[in-house]
Specification:
Blueprint: H1 2-21, H2 25-45, H3 48-51, H4 61-65, H5 68-79, H6 84-107
Helix pairs in contact: 1-2, 1-5, 1-6, 2-6, 5-6
């Protein structure tokens, strides 16, 4: 659950940063929404996710965020000044990873909270 919150928060942060850097509202929101939809769609339809055995040992938070979330955030930081709409798109990818993670957990019958 913490991973999803971090990913969605980073995604929203990059949209706000894109708006501050000069992106218009409509293109930034459209890029963000498109990236969220595409990431969730690809995450749910990737056949490799069905065959992956999840490790039983708990992973550290940083290890779980690298390379996907940290890599997308680094790319967004690089392009936020020259291409702010692309930074909003990268934010949508990050948020989409969080939404897809929660959706996959719920779809597989899991719970989001430890008991």
């Amino acid at each position: 659950m913490y991973l999803a919150l971090i990913r969605v928060a980073l995604g929203l942060m990059w949209v706000v940063a894109a708006r501050i850097a000069g992106a218009s509202s409509a293109p930034a929101r459209l890029a963000f929404a498109t990236a969220v939809f595409a990431t969730v769609f690809l995450g749910f339809n990737d056949p490799r996710t069905r065959a992956v055995q999840r490790p039983r040992e708990p992973q550290t938070l940083l290890r779980s965020l690298f390379p996907s979330t940290i890599g997308v955030s680094v790319l967004a930081a690089i392009v936020v000044a020259p291409q702010p709409v692309l930074a909003a798109f990268c934010g949508g990818v990050s948020a989409g990873l969080g939404v897809a993670g929660v959706g996959m957990k719920l779809l597989r019958g899991g719970t989001l909270y430890r008991r």
